[in-house]
Amino acid sequence: MSHYPALRLRRTRASAWSRRMYAETVLTPADLIWPLFVTDGEGVEEPIASLPGVSRWSVDAVVALAREAAALGIPCLALFPNTPHELRSERGEEALNPDNLMCRAIRAIKDAVPEIGLLTDVALDPYTAHGHDGLIDGAGYVLNDDTAEILVGQALNQARAGADIIAPSDMMDGRVGLIREALEGEGHANVQIMAYAAKYASAFYGPFRDAVGSRGLLKGDKKTYQMDPANSEEALREVELDLDEGADSVMVKPGLPYLDIVRRVKERFEVPVFAYQVSGEYAMIEAAAAAGAGDRDALVLETLMAFKRAGCSGVLTYHAAHAARLLGA
Ligand code: PBG
Question: Residue with the nearest Cα to atom 7 of ligand 1?
Answer without folding.
Answer: 205
